[in-house]
Design brief:
Mean pLDDT: 82
Strand content: under 5%
Shape: extended
Largest sheet: none
Number of strands: 0
Structural class: mainly alpha
Distance between the termini: 87 Å
Length: 128
């Protein structure tokens, strides 16, 4: 019978990641988002807020397209900025989706993304 050497168990001391102190700005943002979510529990208020964000983003998208069209040398940079904004909104989505009960922020980001794209497409169809 061959004796097996005893297994060594090595436990690494896993210290928790250091929690940094929240700044006054971070506390204020959390406070404002909490009060906004509380205000938007009423379905009509939520719908009106989402509609306002959609329409404002549509106006911004149309304005970006118009300004980029007027300044012909600015087209590639404006297109890059728009693509980066859209990609940033898409990349933020999974982080906003995980672990939140009230998804108001996620809905606002989605409405802003849709409105921006809608405004750009509408401005593009004006050129046809």
């Amino acid at each position: 019978m061959v004796d097996k050497p005893p297994r060594l168990r090595i436990r690494l001391a896993s210290s928790p990641a250091p929690r940094f102190q929240q700044t006054r700005f971070q506390r204020r943002i959390a406070q404002v988002s909490g009060s906004l979510e509380g205000w938007a529990t009423n379905p009509w208020r939520r719908l009106s807020l989402l509609l306002i964000v959609l329409l404002v983003a549509m106006v911004v998208g149309g304005g970006l397209g118009t300004i980029a069209g007027a300044l012909a040398y600015f087209d590639p940079i404006a297109a890059l900025v728009c693509v980066l904004l859209m990609e940033l909104a898409v990349r933020l989505r999974p982080g906003l989706l995980a672990g939140r009960q009230d998804r108001l922020v996620l809905q606002l980001v989605d409405m802003a993304r849709i409105g921006l794209l809608w405004g750009l497409m509408l401005d593009g169809f004006k050129l046809l």
